[in-house]
Fold this protein.
Amino acid sequence: MLSSLTAAYLAVSLTLIPPTEIRPDQVEHVALPCVQTGASTDDADAAKSLNQQLGTKMRGYMNPYNTSCARVIVETVQRSGFNDHAAAIAIATVIVESSVANLDGGLGDSVGLFQQRASWGSFEQRTDPVWATGRFLAVMRQFYPNDTWNNVAIGDVAAAVQRPAAKYRHRYGVEAGDAVKIVNELWSQDGNWPPSSKESGGR
């Protein structure tokens, strides 16, 4: 029989993480590489740092792999000329959708970091972190022309792009604070990035 404390914990967990959200400890699909050469020592160091900083879903679950995935997203946003607010929107989205894992499956025909549907692109495109991030940013601009997304809360923009059921829209806002911390950890201050996943022979 469950103790009252355990029952309370499970109740809170089910409230915060809906059944359609992929938990970091319950990834049922194959996680494809985000960088073909693998995670770097910088990714390992950043993961250790982030596990001490984060406060919600990904706390204690950041590892070199998903940190490498987050780094590709942040670098793609920055290379594309967007700011750190845009990067935080993208990171909040992938925390909710895939626990920052480049998955080969998901709900229905959803795949990749952003769990994009088949209507968004081919399997190869949606599981290419650079392409998927670029597609996400393009759709964000369609919903918020003239960079108006800059003046909207992180969670609200993510929900507008992903279009979940109304009862799940709040999920992205829950992760907004941690998304900002991840971006702050990975954002290049001098513009000197390592080679992109494409340049490194990635997907």
About this structure: The first strand starts at residue 31 and ends at 32.
